[in-house]
Amino acid sequence: MSSAIGIRHLQAFIEVARCGSFTRAAERLHLTQSALTTTIKQLEQDAGLTLFDRTTRSVVLSTEGERFLPVAERLHSDFTAAMTDLRARAQLQQGHVSVAGSPSVVTRLLPSALAEFRHQYPSMQVTIRDESAGSLEQRVLNNEVDFALAGNHSQQPELAYAPLLRDRYGLVVPSDHPLAGRESVLWQQVPEDNLLLLSDDTGIRAQLTRFSQRGQIPTRLDQVQIEVSNPAGMAALISQGLGVTLLPALAADVHSFAGLSFIPLETPVIEREICIITRRGRALSPAAAALLQTLRQHLAQIRLPAWVKAVE
């Protein structure tokens, strides 16, 4: 079809073929008979074929019209279905959202916010990925997820980082540790001889390394004997008395750390910033935007863990 031929020409052709009458077809399409006749003539002229054999009493498909009818019906049906799907997505009746988050965000914040979202939009499909910060950023860059919730791991120029939460770093120790129960601990008091850390591929470790390299914290990180790739494994090691660790408050507020003590660190006070990470120049889908709005509203309403605060 040329640029002058569109879906209205297909719809007109199909209706005339079904009715066998320009008069009845025009009534069903809410058109004047002259307008419908002009539309069919435009289609025939563009095709270079006669699609209807007309007599004073009837209108019947020509041989070429009979061949074209199933094609026209399929094209019209596909277009109608596609538009219905687009409208449904715009109205949040259906759709898919893919979100990536750091372990603490996925465990501590997303479940309750997602419950609210599912209550409002029960037909929505949601995929959640729990990965390290570097992987999260790459998934956003690759358009594999709509957005990510994590720290700014590498300041990618193609990504936008909108602050969502800040949580304070602290020392996590067994409940019977000599430092347990204190209101705060100085960074100089961190026991470096039995310090456990998350591995280099995690956002928390990357941030601690930057703090150390810039001289913002006095703790040495290069003598660590045990590294773990996820906070849950870290909690198990601490519970067994193998050492202590440095974590942001939200990461230490998950079930794995129940029974352990989190003591905020001071002099200096160091915080992690959790951001909404999106691809620059890429608009969020209506479903993704709705989930993000639900998350923001949820965070404004709930009582956040100690030492965690929302960014206004």
TrEMBL record:
It comes from the Bacteria. Residues 5-62 form the HTH lysR-type domain. Keywords: DNA-binding, Transcription, Transcription regulation. PROSITE patterns: HTH_LYSR (PS50931). CDD domains: PBP2_LTTR_like_4. InterPro entries: HTH-type_LysR_regulators (IPR050950), LysR_HTH_N (IPR000847), LysR_subst-bd (IPR005119). The keyword Iron-sulfur does not apply. This is LysR family transcriptional regulator. It comes from Marinobacterium weihaiense.
